[in-house]
Amino acid sequence: MDLYEHQARELFEAHGIVVPRAGITDSPERAREIARALGGRAVVKAQVRTGGRGRAGGVRVAADPPAAEEAARHILGMDIKGHTVGTVMLAEPCDVEREFYVSYVLDRAAGRFVAVASAEGGTEIEQVAAERPEAVARIPVDPAAGVNTATAVRIADAAGLPPQTVDTLVRLWQVLVREDALLVEVNPLARTADGRIVALDGKVTLDDNARFRHPGRDDAHATGADPLEARAAAKGLNYVRLDGEVGVVGNGAGLVMSTLDAVAGRGARPANFLDIGGGASARVMADGLAVVLSDPGVKSVLVNIFGGITACDAVADGIVRALDEVRLTKPLVVRLDGNNAARGRALLDARAHPLVEQATTMDGAAHRAARLATAASTAA
Known about the structure:
By secondary structure, this protein is an alpha+beta fold. It has helices spanning 5-14, 28-37, 65-75, 125-131, 149-159, 166-178, 217-221, 227-234, 253-265, 282-293, 312-325, 341-351, 362-379; strands at 22-25, 42-46, 59-62, 79-80, 83-84, 88-91, 96-107, 112-118, 136-141, 181-192, 197-199, 203-206, 238-241, 246-250, 272-275, 300-307, 332-338, 356-359.
């Protein structure tokens, strides 16, 4: 479960991490009042579970309460990568001297956590890592040992962070462990002119499998959950929404992950992870495709199926059924291989939908879906 920024901020504050004073609202008039309580000036920030808010115009600095009301009025209702802004957070501005990046993230392959830190915060860490990988430190963390002061000092030294960040590094690890999180990220972690270390932004992903250890968490954090993820969950689908433009449907987590990599390797970004499972019925295929097509950020869809327990003709039948139920306005690339693949391809050929085409290989399908998405984005 991805938290909103204001929810992450609340967790940080509960664990002794310094954060700016802030308030949230869904009302422009109330935004004026919050700004007045914060001293007049405020940073007005859209609360959505996705990145890129600043570039989309979802973060504005207001010089006074009337400007805060105007900014909130502009931001509320905005669409940011398919997420409608329903609330804004107003935060007290800080006199920032320097910005850093810090996160703890689960490395599933290695079975441990990794501390990722950089002395260059406030920008896209992926861009920094790509252009100057030496500027980003990655320190493995033993889950049993955790992050104590000595480990935090090692992380800070490796990343070039000042000694004042050590206590915050320890407390962020406590957030991760005590809240059963899979990701805890602060960008930027700022040193202010008066020497304080302040978390100016935060991202936290909680482990849904640990909900039983946190009574009341659903009520506290599920409000405003991504509507597509909620819709998919109601239908029993294993769906995670991402920020890309190519919708992805597959059977089996490994195949879906490989498909995401194939799409990224062709210069496009996956819009979601959707695993319809090893024994999915035509109904499940139809439900899954309907959810993916409902994402306004999707420009093309790639269905990649290897028939085993799930026969390809059943998948094709599900696609045909979905085409009868949902008006297809986005191109659909289908790759079927394995059990009853020939029969499945024949079903799609017989349906002969002008927006549906087939590919024989995963790489070929990913290449075609990426090109279609790019063409649609350019045309828009």
